[in-house]
Amino acid sequence: DTAVSQTPKYLVTQMGNDKSIKCEQNLGHDTMYWYKQDSKKFLKIMFSYNNKELIINETVPNRFSPKSPDKAHLNLHINSLELGDSAVYFCASSQKTSSGGIGEQFFGPGTRLTVL
Amino acid sequence: AQSVTQLGSHVSVSEGALVLLRCNYSSSVPPYLFWYVQYPNQGLQLLLKYTSAATLVKGINGFEAEFKKSETSFHLTKPSAHMSDAAEYFCAVGKGSNYKLTFGKGTLLTVNP
C-alpha cells in the first residue's frame, strides 16, 4: 500500500544508454516532483508537474525529460547517460493545504542509478 | 530567493543526550519550514513543519523545532537521543505561493552508545 512508488529501485547501465524511471503516487495529490541526490547527499529539485503541467524546470541538461501521463504518474527519461548522472533520484508528491499553502512532500524510496 | 543553511554537516551525541540540529533560513516572505529525516537507503520522511500556526512545532519521534523570526532560525531538538535517531536530517524552506522547496545540505546525526 505504498504511497509513492518508484521503479526500478536500482539501475546499472552503460554510458550512452537511454533509460527511464517511473513514479506513481496513490495519495490523490496534484503535484509531483523529481529530485536528484548526489553522493554528498545534496538534494536538488529537477522538475515538478501540477495537474500534468510543468511548473518547475530547473537547470537540468536537455537529456533529462519528464513526462506526466496523468496526475498520479511522473516518469523521467534520460538520454545518452553520462558518468555524472550517477545518483539517487527521488520522486515526491504533494497537495496544497486548504488555505493554499505548501503541503508536505511525500517521497518515494528512490532509484539508485549507476552509470558505468 | 529562499535558502537554507544547516550548520554542521555532522553532529555526534551520546545516547540519552540532547540533540540540537541547526537551521537558518533566508526568505523574502513568511516561510514554510520543514524538517525531514532520511534513514540509510530510504526516502525522506517528514518530521515536522512550520506553517505560521505556532512557533513551537512538535513532530514525530519526540522531535520539536522552534521558529524564531528574529534569528531566522528553525532549529530541531530532541531532549534525549536514541540509537534509532541516527540518520541524515534535512531542513527545507518554501513559500506559500510556490510549490518549490529548497533543501539544506543535510546534517548527519550519529548516536554513540
Summarize this entry quickly:
Chain A is mostly beta strands. Chain A is built from no helices and eleven strands. Chain B has strands spanning 3-5, 10-14, 19-21, 24-26, 31-38, 44-50, 56-58, 64-68, 73-78, 87-95, 101-103, 107-112.
Average pLDDT score of chain B:
92
Secondary structural class of chain A: mainly beta
> How large, in whole angstroms, is the Cα Rg of chain A?
14 Å
Biggest sheet features of chain B:
6 strands, mixed
In N-to-C order, the SSE pattern of chain A is EEEEEEEEEEE
- Number of helix segments of chain B? 0
Q: Largest sheet of chain A, described in full?
A: 7 strands, mixed
Number of helices, counting only DSSP H or I runs of 4 residues or more of chain A: 0
- Ranges of chain B where pLDDT stays below 50 over 5 or more residues in a row are none
Q: Could you give the count of β-strands of chain A?
A: 11
Helix proportion of chain B: under 10%
Structural class of chain B: mainly beta
Strand content of chain B: over 45%
Greatest chain-chain contact: A-B, 28 and 26 residues
Give a structural overview:
The complex is a heterodimer of chains A (about 120) and B (about 110). Chain A has no helices and eleven strands. The N and C termini of chain A lie far apart (about 35 Å). Chain A is mainly beta and about 120 residues long. Chain A is about 0% helix and about 55% strand. In chain A, strand 7 and strand 8 (about 75-80) form a beta hairpin. In chain A, strands 2, 4, 5, 6, 9, 10 and 11 form a seven-stranded mixed β-sheet that branches. Chain B is an all-beta fold and about 110 residues long. Helices cover about 0% and strands about 55% of the residues of chain B. Chain B has no helices and twelve strands. Chain B has strands at about 5, 10-15, 20, 25, 30-40, 45-50, 55-60, 65-70, 75-80, 85-95, 100-105, 105-110. In chain B, strands 2, 5, 6, 10, 11 and 12 form a six-stranded mixed β-sheet that branches. A four-stranded antiparallel β-sheet of chain B has the order 3-9-8-7, with no helix packed on it. In chain B, strands 1-4 form a two-stranded antiparallel ribbon. In chain B, a hairpin with a 4-residue loop joins strand 8 (about 65-70) and strand 9 (about 75-80). Chain B is globular, with a radius of gyration of 13 Å. The termini of chain B are far apart. The mean pLDDT of chain B is about 90. The chains are: A mainly beta (about 120), B mainly beta (about 110). The interface between A and B is medium-sized, with 28 and 26 residues.
